[in-house]
Design brief:
The protein has 326 residues and is mostly helical. 77% of the residues lie in helices and 1% in strands.
Length: 326
Amino acid sequence: MHKEAVHNTIRAIVATDFEAVNEFIVEQLHSNVDLVENIGHYIINAGGKRMRPILVLLSARSCGATNDDAVKLAAVIEFIHTATLLHDDVVDMSAMRRGRPTANEQWNNPSSVLVGDFIYSRAFQVMVRIGNMDVMQVMADTTNVIAEGEVLQLLNKHRTDTSEADYMRVIRDKTAVLFEAAAYCGAIVAGAPTETQQALKAAGMHLGMAFQLVDDVLDYDGDASEMGKNIGDDLAEGKPTLPLIHALQQSSGADKTLLEQSIINGGPENLDQVIRIIRNSGALAYTRQKAHEQADLARAQINTLPDSSYRTGLLQMCEMAVARVS
């Protein structure tokens, strides 16, 4: 099944909840400061597949949730994700996301940072309304780990000695932990048994790892119009992601030197040559294999849940994560 069709099938499973989440997000973006609303709506309406909110909904409903806490929680997760995007684009000096100018490009860096802060704090206001201390604890810990992941990624920039383990820690802390929180908190608000909560927590983590690994393949092997960002952005920013790390380990001589200089200097000047070396090294196939391994681990956890359309949706998310490069 084509990835867009898979996404549509998944979203249809929670269609009513999904619409409620979108309505709640718009409602919660209200501010007495016009610039806050303008930037908030700009980034929220930029597209994106809302995979994290859908993960909340599927997890909660698969555990029998019947109230609207899952809808509010899905909005919380989307707000935190949106805030990190606003801040990421400033840190990375990105000019394009989801096929159009980033907020910092459209306005300026200070506005993006401050509106990101507003959206973060609005997420915690909504969490207070949910009133579940376990959810508050998970989300407080999660946002703290995300911040550490951002700093780790910053420290790894332009470093040629970044290991696969270093990279895995960054994507776990920076990206996968929010998927983990989405699935875990969905189970918590549903009042699921501890073993079910832990299964969904693990599934979310592995799913997030799979999505990020595939994103990092697409940075060297994707379609800019489909990705909504420029090919080679990671290289331009001096980010040593797994395809580049693996290619560096497999290369020697002039190729190795070129890769090292590209990491150190950043910029897109040698992108075509770097892509050639990465493809010839088998690094893309290696990274795809790692993504499939993570998706399989997520499936194993999801398969412990009772059979339902929501469990099917969760399994389809695993399929969608890796279908983008299969």
